[in-house]
């Protein structure tokens, strides 16, 4: 995920100077000196078009610090724990039923586990759909609400190194969206979803086209979600450019 279409060139020190290759005004985005576009220079070919994105951090590596924001406790925590306990209890009951050769009950328990897992997959796919809706519309407020604020979420835009920390990830989306007209055209193919306990992930081929470009950019994407207080939040977005 990150942008292709109208190409642009930028360099990062304390501010980002972005000039559209299709004409238009130069815009400045103020970033912290510790903005973690890791040491030296990252050059990312924008596969939504022919432009290039260059992000340069002239500060030493020692100044780079991850951003960690704690999430407030929620009264939904008990519900989440009960869901997890239910699944674990069902798995234990299944083992007991099999050991006792009670295959009728074992089949019923297996069906209940499958239903619960399918519900979790549907919830992760719904969170993934909301992510792409905010991406398509360039909706920063929606994007901010979808990302996990606990730990160190990570975002890897096509061809660039990873950006870690909630605040830095949000600034990166603001940066790559600056010179585009919305909505973008986004299509997903080969979508697969997997859930393991409190973690789920979606893999897919992502195709993006901007209004300024006549070609589609293609990325293979992995989106990882974690369940916090009963809701699924994205914690890792990794997009790798694919030639088409």
Global morphology: elongated
Radius of gyration (CA) equals 21 Å
The main sheet comes to: 6 strands, mixed
Tell me the CATH topology of the domain at 87-241. Answer: Nuclear Transport Factor 2, Chain: A
Low-confidence stretches: 4-84
The overall pLDDT average reads: 75
Strand order of the largest sheet: 7-6-11-10-9-8
CATH class of the domain at 87-241: Alpha Beta
Instruction: Give the second-level CATH assignment, the architecture of the domain at 87-241.
Output: Roll
Number of strands: 11
What percentage of the residues does DSSP assign to strands (E)? 25-35%
Summed up, the helix count is 4
| Structural class by sheet pairing and helices | alpha+beta
DSSP helix fraction: 25-40%
The termini sit apart by 16 Å
**H-E string:** EEEEEHHHEEHEEEE
What distinguishing features does this structure have?
single chain, 244 residues, alpha+beta, Nuclear Transport Factor 2, Chain: A, 6-stranded mixed β-sheet, 3-stranded antiparallel β-sheet, elongated
Task: Describe this structure as you would to a colleague.
The chain has 244 residues and is an alpha+beta fold. The protein has a domain at 87-241: Nuclear Transport Factor 2, Chain: A (Roll), CATH 3.10.450.50. It is 32% helix and 31% strand. It has four helices and eleven strands. It has helices spanning 77-99, 103-137, 140-146, 166-177; strands at residues 8-9, 15-20, 27-30, 40-45, 52-57, 154-156, 163-164, 185-196, 199-209, 217-228, 231-242. The protein has a six-stranded mixed β-sheet. The protein has a three-stranded antiparallel β-sheet with strand order 1-2-3, with no helix packed on it. It has a two-stranded antiparallel sheet with strand order 4-5. α1 (77-99) packs antiparallel against α2 (103-137) and α2 (103-137) runs antiparallel to α3. The longest helix is centred in the middle third of the chain and has 35 residues, at 103-137. The radius of gyration is 21 Å and the shape is elongated. Mean pLDDT is 75; it is low at 4-84. Residues 124-242 form the SnoaL-like domain. InterPro entries: NTF2-like_dom_sf, SnoaL-like, UVR_dom. It comes from Arabis alpina (Alpine rock-cress). This is SnoaL-like domain-containing protein. Residues 89-118 form the UVR domain.
């Amino acid at each position: 995920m990150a942008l292709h279409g109208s190409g642009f060139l930028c360099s990062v020190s304390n501010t980002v100077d972005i000039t559209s290759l299709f004409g238009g005004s130069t815009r400045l985005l103020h970033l912290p000196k510790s903005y973690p576009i890791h040491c030296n220079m990252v050059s990312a070919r924008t596969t939504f078009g022919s432009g290039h994105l260059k992000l340069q951090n002239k500060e030493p590596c020692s100044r780079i610090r991850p951003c960690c924001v704690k999430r407030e406790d929620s009264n939904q925590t008990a519900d989440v724990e009960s869901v997890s306990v239910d699944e674990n209890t069902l798995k234990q009951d299944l083992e007991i039923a099999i050991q006792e050769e009670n295959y009728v009950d074992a089949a019923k328990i297996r069906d209940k586990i499958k239903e619960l897992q399918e519900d979790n997959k549907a919830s992760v796919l719904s969170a993934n759909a909301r992510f792409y809706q905010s991406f398509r519309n360039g909706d920063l407020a929606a994007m901010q609400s979808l990302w996990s604020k606990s730990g160190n979420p990570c975002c890897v835009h096509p061809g660039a190194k990873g950006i870690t920390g909630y605040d830095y990830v949000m600034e990166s989306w603001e940066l790559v969206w600056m010179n585009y007209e919305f909505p973008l055209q986004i299509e997903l193919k080969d979508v697969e979803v997997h859930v393991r306990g409190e973690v789920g992930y979606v893999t897919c081929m992502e195709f993006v086209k901007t209004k300024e470009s006549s070609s589609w950019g293609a990325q293979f994407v992995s989106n990882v979600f974690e369940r916090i207080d009963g809701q699924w939040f994205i914690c890792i977005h990794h997009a790798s450019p694919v030639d088409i």
